[in-house]
Write a structure and sequence with these properties.
Layout (H helix, E strand, L loop, with lengths): L1 H7 L5 E2 L23 E4 L12 E6 L5 E7 L2 H8 L4 E4 L12 H5 L8 H7 L4 E6 L8 H14 L6 H16 L2 H21 L3 E6 L2 H14 L13 E4 L8 H4 L5 H12 L7 E4 L12 E7 L4 H8 L11 E6 L4 H13 L8 E2 H18 L13 H16 L4 H19 L3 H5 L1 H16 L9 H4 L14 H4 L1 H5 L11 H8 L4 H19 L4 H19 L5 H25 L3 H10 L3 H6 L2 H17 L9 H17 L7 H14 L1 H5 L2
Parallel strand pairs: 1-2, 2-5, 6-11, 6-12, 7-9, 7-10, 8-9, 10-11
Antiparallel strand pairs: 3-4
C-alpha cells in the first residue's frame, strides 16, 4: 500500500524527519505549499503529531516566573498550515483517542493493520505476561499530616493549573518514594530478579517515578547486593540511566550520564555477555530502545496511554528461545493498561498485549501433568528423599522407563522443553516454586537423553543457544552425571578401539534401552570422526547404523537384537581400520581409494593395484593444488576439477563413471582441506 502511495506522489518530497520542523521555520516550505504531490510520512505517529485546537498556557520569563498567558497550537496545525495539500501517512503501534489527540482524526482511516496477534504468530515478537506485586504504601502520623496539609493547599483557588498539577505530583512522588516503601521494593525486586535469573538468563529494566526515587532505589539495591555496584561505567551489574542538573544534589547528580555515556551503556545492555543486567530509568529508553535479551520490566511509576504501551514493548523482542517477557507491576497500573488498550482493540487490532502470569502458571501445571503421566508406574517420588548416589541410580532407571515407551524419547524431550519454557515465565510464582524439585528431576532425565543423541545431528542450535537455564539439583551437577558412560553405569571405553571387553559389557547391561542409546552414540561419534578422512566409507557406515536403529523404532527388532547388530557393525569398523595398512596407504590416501573404487565398473575394469596407484596420485595432485581459499574460489575449484578429470582419463577410469568419481573426489578433497593446509 505504501509503495502505491509513493507511485501516486512520484516526484514529490518525502519528509521522514518532520519532527525536527519548528513552526517559525515555515518559510522553508513556501515553495512547496501549493503542490499536491507531496507525501508526509510520520513515524511514531502517536507522539507529537496532534494539536489543531488552541491552548492557553502560562508564559514565563525564562526563570520560571509567570508573566502572563499565551496561545499555542500543536504540531499538526503548523504542519498542515505549511503543507495544506500534502497527503499525510502515519505509522503507529499505539493509536490515541482523546479530545485533541486523536490518531484517526489527524491521519484518517486505517490503511492496514498489523496487530499483536499476527506479530506473535509470525514470530516477530513474543508474548508479554503481567504480574502484580503491589508494594503497599504505609504512612506515619507525620506523613499523614503532610498529605492532609497538601490537600488543603490544593483547595486554594488562586493556584494555577500548573501549580496544582505540580503539587499533586509532589504528593504522589512523596508517597511512592517514601524510604520504607523504596526499601520494600528493593528487597522484593532483588529476590524476584535473582530467582528469574536462575532459570531465565537475561536482563531487566526498572522504571522509577522520579530521579530522586531512582537514585534511592539504586542505593537500596546495592546495599542488598554491594557486588553489583561499580563506579566504572564499563563495569557493574546495575546502572541508573538519566540526566541531572546542578539543583539535584550530589546523590542524584552522580548518576548523570552524557549522550556518549548512555550510548556506551546501551551497548553494554544489548550485549548478552556483558555483566550489566539491570538498569533503572525514569523516562529514557522507554521507547525505541530494543534489547532482545531483556525479559522483565519492573514498573513503579504512574503511566498511561501510548507511553505505557510503548514501555511494555521493551520486553517483547525475540531472542533465542525466549518464551515471553514479564511486566512486574509495583504500583497498580492494570486499570491504566486496560484503558490504553481499549482504543487499540476498537481500531481493529487483535491479540492481548499482556497475558496474566496465571496463564503461564496454568500452562506450566498442564505440562507438569503430561510429563508426570509419562512416569505412570514408575515411583520417581523416591528421588526427592534420596542421596546423590541413589539419585543417579533413579535417573538411570527413569531413562530406561522413558526409552521403553513408544516414541518416548521425543515426546518426553518435547514436553519437558515446553514445561521448562512455561516454568521460566511463571517463576517466582509460588506454584512454580512448589514444583521446582520435580522440574529439576525431569530436566536431569532430559539432559541425559539429549546426551545420548545418536542420530548424527547432535544437539540442535535451539538446544545449544538457549536462555532457559536448567534447575537441575546442584548435587547432580558434576562430571559424573554429565558423562554419558558414568550416567549409564559402565566404564568409559577407549573409543578409538571399541574393545571386545567394552562391547561385552554393553551387551550385558541390565537396562537394554540405555545400553542401546550408549552404543548408538558411541558408534555415531566414531563414524562422524572418520568422515573427514574417508567420506564415502563413513556415509556407508552411517546408513548401516541408521538402518539398524530404524528396525528398532519400527519394532522389527528388540533393543537386545539391535545391540547385537550394532556390535557386529562395531567389529566391521575395526576390520576396515586394518585395510589402509594392509594396502600400504595412509588414511588420506585410502579415503581417495574408496572414493574411486565405490562403483562396480571401476573395480571390474581396473585392477586393485591400479586403483591404489590412482588414489595416491590423486591425493598428491589435490595436495599440490590447494590454497587457503580454494574451497570458495570457483576458479581454483574449476582448475582442480580439470586436473582430477584428466588424471582419471590417463589411468583408464571408466568414462561413464568419470563425472560421478570427479565429484566424489572433490568432496573428499574439501573434507580434508584444513588438514592439508595445516599438517
Amino acid at each position: 500500500m505504501l509503495k502505491e502511495l509513493l507511485k501516486v506522489a512520484s516526484g514529490g518530497v518525502i519528509f521522514s524527519t518532520i519532527q525536527k520542523f519548528q513552526p517559525d521555520e515555515g518559510n522553508v516550505f513556501d515553495t512547496l505549499s501549493e503542490r499536491e504531490n507531496i507525501v508526509v510520512i510520520a513515524d511514531e505517529a502517536h507522539r507529537t503529531q496532534y494539536g489543531f485546537k488552541a491552548k492557553t498556557i502560562d508564559d514565563t520569563d525564562g526563570h520560571g516566573n509567570i508573566i502572563g498567558k499565551k496561545i499555542v497550537y500543536g504540531f499538526a496545525k503548523y504542519m498542515r498550515d505549511a503543507l495544506p495539500n500534502a497527503t499525510y501517512l502515519g505509522f503507529t503501534g499505539t493509536p490515541i483517542e482523546s479530545t485533541d489527540t486523536n490518531t484517526t482524526v489527524v491521519f484518517g482511516n486505517y490503511i492496514d493493520i498489523y496487530d499483536i496477534a499476527q506479530s506473535i504468530e509470525d514470530g516477530a515478537t513474543v508474548k508479554i505476561y503481567y504480574e502484580s506485586r503491589l508494594a503497599r504504601i504505609s504512612l506515619t502520623d507525620e506523613g499523614k499530616k503532610l498529605v492532609s496539609d497538601l490537600d488543603d493547599e490544593l483547595e486554594l483557588n488562586e493556584q494555577s493549573e500548573t501549580q496544582k498539577d505540580k503539587a499533586k505530583w509532589t504528593q504522589l512522588e512523596a508517597l511512592i518514594g517514601s524510604k520504607s516503601r523504596v526499601k520494600q521494593v528493593a528487597l522484593d525486586l532483588v529476590d524476584h530478579f535473582e530467582q528469574r535469573q536462575e532459570v531465565f538468563e537475561g536482563k531487566a529494566m526498572i522504571v522509577a517515578m522520579s530521579r530522586r526515587i531512582a537514585a534511592e532505589l539504586y542505593a537500596e539495591i546495592i546495599n542488598i547486593r554491594p557486588q553489583w555496584h561499580n563506579d566504572d561505567l564499563k563495569k557493574g551489574a546495575i546502572k541508573v540511566v538519566m540526566t541531572s542538573d546542578s539543583s539535584d544534589g550530589p546523590e542524584i547528580s552522580k548518576h548523570h550520564t552524557t549522550k556518549d555515556q548512555r550510548r556506551a551503556l546501551a551497548d553494554r545492555m544489548k550485549n548478552p555477555e556483558d555483566e550489566l543486567k539491570l538498569v533503572i530509568v525514569r523516562d529514557m529508553w522507554l521507547t525505541g530502545f530494543d534489547v532482545p535479551p531483556m525479559h522483565t520490566l519492573y514498573i513503579d511509576k504512574p503511566m498511561q496511554g501510548h507511553n505505557l504501551m510503548q514501555a511494555i514493548a521493551r520486553v517483547n523482542r525475540v531472542y533465542k528461545d525466549k518464551p515471553g517477557g514479564l511486566i512486574v507491576d509495583y504500583l497498580g497500573i492494570a486499570s491504566d493498561l486496560k484503558k490504553a488498550l481499549s482504543f487499540y482493540s476498537d481500531s481493529g487490532g487483535k491479540g492481548d498485549p499482556t497475558v496474566l502470569q496465571e496463564k503461564a502458571v496454568q500452562m506450566m501445571l498442564e505440562k507438569l501433568e503430561v510429563v508426570s503421566q509419562m512416569f505412570y508406574g514408575f515411583a520417581y517420588e523416591e528421588y526427592f528423599e534420596a542421596d546423590t548416589s541413589k539419585k543417579l541410580s533413579l535417573i538411570l532407571a527413569a531413562e530406561e522407563h522413558i526409552l521403553s515407551l513408544d516414541n518416548g524419547k521425543k515426546q518426553y524431550t518435547d514436553e519437558v522443553t515446553a514445561l521448562s519454557l512455561a516454568f521460566s515465565i511463571a517463576i517466582p510464582h509460588e506454584q512454580a516454586m512448589d514444583i521446582k524439585d520435580e522440574v529439576s528431576l525431569f530436566q536431569a532425565v532430559k539432559s541425559r537423553l539429549v546426551k545420548f543423541d545418536g542420530t548424527g545431528k547432535g544437539e540442535t542450535n535451539h538446544e545449544v543457544e538457549t536462555t532457559i537455564r536448567q534447575v537441575i539439583d546442584k548435587a547432580l551437577v558434576t562430571d559424573q552425571v554429565i558423562d554419558v558412560f558414568d550416567a549409564a553405569g559402565i566404564r568409559k571405553p577407549d573409543i578409538s578401539i571399541l574393545s571386545d571387553e567394552f562391547l561385552l559389557e554393553v551387551k550385558n547391561m541390565e537396562h537394554k534401552n540405555i545400553a542401546l542409546e550408549v552404543l548408538k552414540k558411541l558408534l555415531n561419534d566414531e563414524i562422524k570422526s572418520r568422515a573427514k578422512k574417508n567420506l564415502v566409507q563413513s556415509k556407508s557406515l552411517m546408513e548401516m547404523l541408521e538402518n539398524s536403529i530404524q528396525k528398532y523404532h519400527s519394532k522389527i527388532l528388540t533393543a537386545a537384537e539391535v545391540i547385537d547388530e550394532l556390535i557386529e557393525l562395531s567389529k566391521e569398523i575395526k576390520e576396515k581400520d586394518k585395510e589402509p595398512q594392509e594396502m600400504g596407504l595412509s588414511d588420506y590416501e585410502y579415503g581417495f581409494y574408496v572414493a574411486i573404487a565405490d562403483n562396480n565398473s571401476a573395480r571390474e575394469l581396473m585392477e586393485k593395484d591400479k586403483l591404489r596407484e590412482l588414489a595416491v596420485v590423486l591425493f598428491e595432485k589435490v595436495k599440490a593444488n590447494t590454497s587457503i581459499d580454494w574451497t570458495i574460489k570457483e576458479s581454483i575449484k574449476a582448475k582442480l576439477k580439470v586436473i582430477v578429470k584428466r588424471t582419471l582419463r590417463q589411468y583408464g577410469y571408466p568414462p561413464d563413471m568419470q563425472k560421478l568419481a570427479t565429484e566424489t573426489v572433490l568432496k573428499q578433497a574439501e573434507s580434508i582441506a584444513s588438514d592439508l593446509l595445516n599438517p
